[in-house]
Amino acid sequence: MTWHSRTSTTTTTPAARGTGRRAGRAVCAGGRRARPFLLVLLLGLTLNSCAGPASSAALPRATKSGESAARAAAPEPRSSAVPFAGASSVGVLIDSQGEHFCTASVVSSSKGNIIATAAHCLQDAGGDPAYEPGELEFAPGFTGQGKGRYPYGRWKVGSVHLDERWTEDAEDADAADYAFLTLAPDARGRQVQQVVGAATPDWSSAPDRRVTVVGYPNKQHNPGNRPIACTTDTRPDPDLPRMLLMECAGFWEGTSGGPWLADYRDAKHQGRLIGVLSGGDTDSESTAALFDDRTREVYEEAAGS
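Above: the chain's sequence. Below: its structure in C-alpha cell form.
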C-alpha cells in the first residue's frame, strides 16, 4: 500500500492519523473546507468547529450542439439538493472502524479501478496522511438501509495519489484539492468500473457549466445515509483562482469529494467529471478545483500504478 504525490520520487508511509488545523485551511474528517477569506472569522468564533476515460488519451471537447442536446436532457436546475439514486458509481469512503466519511466516485480508466475524492479527506495540506490506504474502503451506491447498505460491496483502497501542491502546501494548494485512489478487485476478480460504471474525466472544461453534484451528508443531516444531488450552474470563484463556485443548499459535511458531473443525464449517461467538491462557506455555497492538465498528471500516475 503506497501513497503518492505528483512528481514525487519517494514513497511516504503514514505513521499516524492527522487531522490538524492550519490557519486558512481547517479540515474536519468527512468535512468541507472553509474558504480562506472567512476562516479567520470562523476560527475566532470557535476553535473546534468540526462536526462530525477508457484511456489516458486526450478527450475531445463536446460540440456546442452536443452540449445543448445533453443539457436539454439533464435535470432542471435547483436551489436545494434532493434525494438521489441516479449513479451507482458514487459512494462513500469507509475507515477501519466501519464509519463512512466523505464522498467519492468511480472515474473511467483503462484498468477500471480508479475513484476520485477530495485531498483534504485524506490529509491536511502539507500535513501527514490521516489514513493508510489499507485502512480505507470504498462503498459505491451506499444506502445505509438494511441489506442494501453495501449493494455493490466494499472495495479496498490500494494506493492514494495526490498533487504535490497539496502535499507541500503550496500557495495554490486550494486548486489541488483532489485525489485519485486505486482499488483492488473484488473476490470475483472484477474491477469496480465493471460493476458500477464510471464518469469520464474532463481536463479542459470551461468554468461555466451546468453540473449535477452528488454527495453524502454526514449522519446528523442525513439519518438515512442516502445520497443527495443538485443540478445547478457553476461560475468561476471570484476569490480562489482555478476554483468553481455553485450555490445549492444541502451540501453539509460529508459531501466533500462528491463529483461535479457536466452533461449528466441519468445513471447510464453520467457525463463528464470536471471536479470534486472541496469546500464552501455554508451548506448552500460549494467550491471545486476545476480539473486541468495538472490534475490529469495525477490521474495518469494512478492509472499507471
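The first strand starts at residue 2 and ends at 5.
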